[in-house]
Structure formats: C-alpha cells, structure tokens
UniProtKB/TrEMBL annotation:
It comes from the Bacteria. This is ComF family protein. Belongs to the ComF/GntX family. CDD domains: PRTases_typeI.
Length: 217
C-alpha cells in the first residue's frame, strides 16, 4: 500500500479545535479524532510478519526468512516497502472514502499510520527525498486531487523528508487498476511513469520514498 511519529492509540494527529465535533471514520462515535482508540486497536493492531521487500504477509512456511517467495523469484525495482495495514475490510472503506468520497481529512490519518509503521521498522534506512505516484491529467481533473500526494504532504512534514511533487510524471493515461484482472495490471502500468526533465541529477545517489494509497501489483 503505500511509504508510512506518534502512536495513534495515545495521540491522533488529526485533531480539531476545541468545541468542533467530529466522529470516528469507522464507527461514527463522536469525538475529536478521525479514528477512535478502540477502532485503532481493533483494526490496526494486527502486525503480521511481512516480506521486507513487498510487505506482503509471510506464510507459515516463509517465516524463517525475510523475503516472500515472489520476491525471491522475481527481481524487484525497489528495496523495501512500508505499509499501514492490509487492504481488507474495514480499512479498504477508509481508502475508498478518501479516494472517491473526497474525505481529504483522512489523508493525515493515513500519513500518521504510515509513520507508526515506519517507526516499528528499526532497521529501515530513512529515505532522503519523497515523491507521490502521480495521477493522469484526465483523472486528476475528474477527482480534483491526487490522494497519494495528499497523504505524502503530512507524511513529509512528520518525518522531515523533502517532498518533490513533480519528481515523477505520467507518460500516458492508464486504465484504473481496480477495473483490471491481476494479470493485466502489470501491462497497464508498463512504461506509464517517467522522471521529470532534469531530474536525473536530483535523484542520483538518493534514497527515494514513493507514496501511494494502495499497493496491489
């Protein structure tokens, strides 16, 4: 899914000024946080052992190693993945509410959850610059915002890593990944992204974090 300082079970970063009511995005109980403590503990406390490269939960037979079978078989173009949680109910509903329901107040919550996950990975080497997966021009015009960039903005501030919004560019429009079968998703993304002009010198020697809302393929 997505790259992810403060434990949200103790203090949530999404606070509103005193007197302004809100409610938990999952259970709708009134409060001052986007995610209440009980929902946070119930739905985000599961921490399976994951592949260090793709973050997919390791199967029982894979627990003795750090990489899953797929990452051992298929060379990857990235070194590590940090995720806030598995894309399953009810977490998937939060993602959809941000992405298609225009609930931008959830973006800082996702950023905080990624920070929490990042701090749990003691051996993880912190990136030096950050970028977000860009939307195509047509989809950006339809939606009005890039959900990955909205997550990356508070994430960048929380871990004090520079965000370069225009680092990656779309080279062509693509079909929505959710509309395609798994075997077509890789083809859909092939050659869909490129570095911005003059960016080669900027990224040379850097440790780059790329932020997205969902990691599926």
């Amino acid at each position: 899914m997505l790259y992810r300082f403060i434990d949200w079970t103790r203090r949530c970063i999404l606070r509103l000024p005193a007197g302004i009511p809100t409610s938990c995005a999952l259970c709708s109980i009134p409060g001052t946080a986007a995610l209440c403590g009980p929902c946070g503990r119930q739905f985000f406390s599961r921490r399976p052992r994951r592949c260090t490269q793709c973050a997919y939960p390791l199967a029982d037979g894979e627990q003795v190693r750090s990489l899953c079978g797929n990452c051992l078989r298929i060379p990857r173009a990235f070194d590590a993945t940090i995720v806030a949680g598995d894309y399953s109910a009810p977490i998937d509903h939060l993602v959809l509410a941000l992405k298609f329901g225009n609930q931008l107040a959830l973006a800082p919550l996702f950023a905080q959850l990624i920070v929490d996950a990042l701090l749990r990975e003691r051996a993880f080497a912190m990136p030096t610059i950050m970028a977000a997966v860009p939307l195509g021009e047509q989809r950006l015009a339809e939606r009005g915002f890039n959900q990955a960039l909205e997550i990356a903005k508070p994430l960048s501030r929380a871990i004090a890593i520079p965000l370069i919004p225009q680092l990656i560019q779309r080279s062509r429009e693509t079909a929505m990944q959710s509309s395609l079968p798994p075997d077509a998703r890789h083809r859909n993304m092939r050659n869909a992204f490129t570095l911005a002009a003059q960016a080669a010198d900027l990224v040379r020697g850097q440790h780059i974090a790329i932020v997205d809302d969902v990691l599926t393929s």
